[in-house]
Amino acid sequence: MELILVRHGLPVRVELAEGRADPELSDTGWRQAHQVAEWLIREAIDAVYTSPLLRAIETARPLAEGLGVRPVVQESVAEYDRGASRYIPMEELKREDYPAWKAFVDGGYGEEVDMDEFAIRVSNGMEEIIRANAGRRVAVFCHGGVVNVWTAKLLGMAPSLFINVDYGSISRFLCASTGERNVRSLNETGHLA
Asked: Is there a contact between 7 and 144 (Cβ–Cβ < 8 Å)?
């Protein structure tokens, strides 16, 4: 089966939310969501899954509507920071507080993030999707961290955020029912040009 991971579009910035920050898409993010849908609608997508976070649900909406399918919400593909009270896009963090951004990309994810536990949750969720969709092509709308830890697992690496996954990008994986997993492409962005 072909597993297509789509990073959500650019969300709005949330400085401090009461409870969990779960930002909606920005205008740019909605444009990216429609560009993803226009690109993938030409492929034979059999099912659409999404993280429970609003930015992923909204990014999945144009494709799901175009296909006439209802997205399946998959808790296991939520981002590692799903409980955080703020959301600052990485490009903004890099521009505004380079030392904080650098510390983060160098592995300083914070005490509240257990990267090994996150990678296990993501891996179990992806394997569940693969088992349920043998021989099919499935789009999973998720997050940059999810794409990173899934790819790291397939490459035999420790879980980390080693790929700069762009908003609205597409990454493809071939997953055989016999257990073989292959990276087909990472961070496709041609549809966003």
From this structure: yes
